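From the shared-data thread, chain only:
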Amino acid sequence: EIAGRSLAISRSVGDRVGEGRALICEGNSLYETGRYAEAEVRYRKALEIACEHGFLDLEGVVMTNLAILKPVRSATGEGLAMLERALEISRETGDEEGETEILSLIGTPLFLLGRKGEAMACLNRGLELSHRIGVDRYNAETRIGIVRILLDGKPSPESVRSAREQLLAASKEIPRQDRARPRMLWSLCLEYAALASKTPDLGERMRFAALAADTLTRGKRSLLKEAKKLNSDDSRTSFQEGIPEHAAMLSACKSIRGSQSRTGDILPVLEEFRSR
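Structure, as tokens:
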């Protein structure tokens, strides 16, 4: 509603920058509740305004948001091109916080395209930059991206140890109150499962399986809590079912029962979701 009023006011006074920002805010609200198609319409309109008037900062934000909307595996190249453009703009305009966010995201498409070295360099650069400017809101996602690379294939014992340290740090940096929290907990859960699968010691393997189970429970609890805050049944439904990570997490919870959640039996279930 606030974004809608801001959009109306901006249009009434001919404030094109304000109109673009309001469209982005509307798109963000729609995105956060799983209404991706509607969010993309808002972002595309904002992009038209940004490109028409040369508003580089707006263009960078929109390109980042559009890249996030792209299916990771089926539109990897397109998403990467958008993030590369957004990264270029953030550096040109001196937007270091924006650069930190983009670096937390760009590792995934680079990794999927087989450019592991570049992916790791971007993610490490993101952590370094976030520490320097004192912004930690993207750290958990960045660390989870690093773990995916460390555990790829047949990791060395050193890589497994590093992955364990990164996940421990990520678990402490996930925001406590945020609509992104359920998704991040789900990602953390899947990487705990991946870490367990790469751990030869049975005791350690069981410990990571238990951490995955606990994180899954926390993720579901957080998802239901955030859904309750939404003001309509449609919004709550789209938040729980329209966001793929949320739907997958709820499906995983239904697949895992009783003592299974406390044993290594949870791992094949989570590995199946992780490979999708």
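The CA atoms of residues 143 and 168 lie 10 Å apart.
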